[in-house]
Amino acid sequence: MKRFLATILALLLPVMCLTGCDDNNPDRAYVKIGDVWKEVEIKDKCEHGGGIWHLKLTDGTVMYISTENCILYKGHLPIKK
Predict the structure, then answer these.
(1) Interior angle at CA 26, CA 24 and CA 27, nearest 5
(2) What's the chain's Rg over C-alpha atoms?
(3) What is the pLDDT of residue 17?
(4) Is this model's pTM higher than 0.85 or not?
């Protein structure tokens, strides 16, 4: 019985880890352009190697931006304006 449970756990654990972040579709971002942070609405996002994101914005703009200059989120951030 222990071996059966260990086998089931060994099979399910990788699947659970891969699907744990299923809701990974941010709809907004803060991007740093120069010294200014701007809020933008995201239509689509694609990750490239080396810490680069390819963002398609709702207004049709396409951006390639470093992960150091971008904060992705879904919903609203609790930031005072």
Answers:
(1) 150
(2) 18
(3) 46
(4) no
